[in-house]
Automatic annotation (TrEMBL):
Subcellular localization: Membrane
Lineage, opening ranks: Eukaryota, Metazoa, Chordata, Craniata, Vertebrata
Gene3D superfamilies referenced in this protein's UniProt entry, alphabetically: 3.90.550.50
Family of the protein in this entry: Belongs to the glycosyltransferase 31 family. Beta3-Gal-T subfamily.
Keyword DNA damage: no
Name of the molecule in the record: C1GALT1-specific chaperone 1
Segments crossing the lipid bilayer: 6-28
InterPro entries the record matches: C1GALT1/C1GALT1_chp1
Gene name of the encoded protein: C1GALT1C1
Cellular-component GO terms for this entry: membrane
Length: 317
């Protein structure tokens, strides 16, 4: 009788241990599954279900309809940055041109003949519209310290109408004036650049230079002129409300996230569909190019519905 009781107790004890082990293993598997979902990559998806229903040739035509002309404002002292931009992200524009304050023998550029950044910007926009207004529907302007992911820009513009008067990027406020910071890059629709270039006939509303009151940054002057033309600044954000045009570098954002979100450094840093980062050195341009366009994690499948193809004869890598 005693031996039977012992056997019964042993059986209960072993069964209990087995149940505990199974429960623990179940929690481990569930937790592992959660971790796997937590670290899934967030790829850009088509913004509308209708795009998923399009045939492949229709999606190809749609991707080709978004043509971006890139304007990079440079000065001779920026020669290293100039070279880095030319060899990295500028290749992904449908067309990119450099606008310089003077002739530079080392690189091909459009000479603006002035060191005044506002005048350079305005002349560059006029040149772009006069020469390419019938070929491109979006005009992206940046400094040589900016790194841009043009495919993300095209994705963001997918549901935007270029015939509407607006411009976008990273907005800031100066008093009552809301403007797009040139540090993060500025995007003008074809309608916006058309209205901007109609303003020289009204110099009192948008003077080129000469007044002390206009001794402010070029992005603020642009905002004032566009406001008179009925074009207003819009801040570009992703679905989570994060900025996609950034006026800082990835490194600075990571440092800030380590302080403000120490348990979510990567998630708390930046948008998954960021378009620009600013404040980069020339060697950081190549690091960004490697990370964005060349580094791949083995086993992860990239299956974006829409692909933006480079133009013919492009050296887009």
């Amino acid at each position: 009788m005693l031996s039977e009781s012992s056997l019964f107790l042993k059986g209960v004890l072993l069964g209990s241990i087995f149940c505990v082990l199974m429960t623990m293993l179940g929690h481990i598997r569930m937790d592992y599954g959660k971790r796997r979902r937590h670290y899934e990559h967030h790829h850009l998806q088509a913004p509308d279900e209708d795009i998923l229903k399009l045939a492949e040739d229709e999606r190809t035509n749609l991707s080709k309809s978004f043509r971006v002309y890139c304007i990079i404002l440079v000065k001779p002292k920026d020669v290293r940055l100039w070279a880095a931009v030319k060899e990295t992200w500028a290749k992904h524009c449908d067309k990119a041109e450099f606008f310089s304050s003077e002739n530079v023998k080392v690189f091909e550029s459009v000479n603006m003949g002035t060191n005044d950044m506002w005048l350079m910007m305005r002349k560059a926009y006029k040149y772009a519209f006069d020469k390419y207004g019938d070929q491109y529907n979006w005009f992206f302007l940046a400094r040589p310290t900016t790194f841009a992911i043009i495919e993300n820009l095209k994705y963001f513009l997918l549901k935007k109408n270029s015939s509407q008067p607006f411009y976008l990027g990273h907005t800031e406020k100066s008093g009552d004036l809301e403007y797009v910071s040139v540090g993060g890059g500025i995007v003008l629709s074809i309608e916006s650049i058309k209205r901007l270039n109609s303003l020289p006939s009204i110099p009192e509303k948008c003077p080129e230079k000469g007044r002390k009151v206009w001794d402010v940054s070029e992005d603020k002057q642009l905002a004032v002129c566009l406001k008179y033309a009925g074009v207003f600044a819009k801040n570009a954000e992703d679905s989570k409300g994060k900025d996609v045009f950034n006026t800082k570098s990835v490194g600075i954002f990571i440092k800030e996230a380590m302080t403000n979100h120490p348990n979510q450094v990567v998630e708390g840093c930046c948008s998954d569909m960021a378009i620009t980062f600013n404040g980069l050195t020339y060697n950081q341009m190549y690091v960004m190019m490697y990370g964005v366009y060349h580094l791949r994690a083995f086993g992860h499948v990239f299956s974006d519905v829409l692909v933006f193809l480079p133009v013919n004869a492009s050296d887009n890598d």
